[in-house]
Design brief:
With 172 residues, the protein is an alpha+beta fold. It has six helices and six strands. It has a single domain, classed as Diphtheria Toxin, domain 1. The longest helix has 11 residues. The termini are far apart.
């Protein structure tokens, strides 16, 4: 029930953190839908519009500055949780995927979506394809959430070296 993924993906970064576009450390610092605080994950979207909506938390008209990156991704062991047969195989409900994870980050309890990622990671899944749950996301918007990845398999495309090399790069 795990498959390969090869293609492009996108992420809209806070410019302050764009120097580590492949790290997943930003998600580790705050947690996210499929990772509790302290656990790295790399959230990508299959469309650039979805990446922007995800970064803006679905609030139209409240755009903060972003650095948009395109990624080349090639990974095995991806669970496509958009597919009901895959969800059934892994005994995953849409309700658990769409849970209000942020309240769990505050309470210290385990979010159902974190349990999904933990269980899939233990079964060798490198990532998951999931619908976008951001407000105002299009119905077919898809995210690729990487749970375990190798930087050789996921590369931010920066042929002209435009991304900063560290946070101090913004001061130059």
């Amino acid at each position: 029930m795990l498959q390969s993924f090869k293609g492009s993906a996108f992420r809209a970064h806070n410019p302050k953190w764009a120097f580590q576009p492949e790290s997943g450390e930003g998600a580790a610092s705050t947690g996210g839908r499929f990772n509790p605080p302290g656990t790295s994950a790399l959230y990508l979207s299959l469309g650039y519009e979805s990446a922007i909506i995800e970064a803006q938390q679905g609030f139209p008209g409240k755009f903060q500055p972003l650095t948009i990156c395109s990624y080349s991704v090639e990974l095995d062991n991806i669970a496509d949780l958009r597919d009901p047969t895959v969800r059934d195989h892994f005994q995953i409900s849409e309700q658990a995927m769409a849970c209000g994870w942020a309240m769990y980050a505050v309470s210290g309890d385990k979010a159902p979506s974190w349990a999904i990622a933990e269980a899939l990671r233990s079964k060798g899944a490198c990532g998951i394809l999931v619908p976008s749950y951001a407000n105002n996301a299009k119905a077919n918007a898809t995210n690729l959430v990487l749970l375990q990845w190798d930087q050789a398999s996921v590369k931010a495309i920066d042929d002209d070296n435009r991304l900063p090399i560290n946070q101090d790069s913004w001061l130059v």
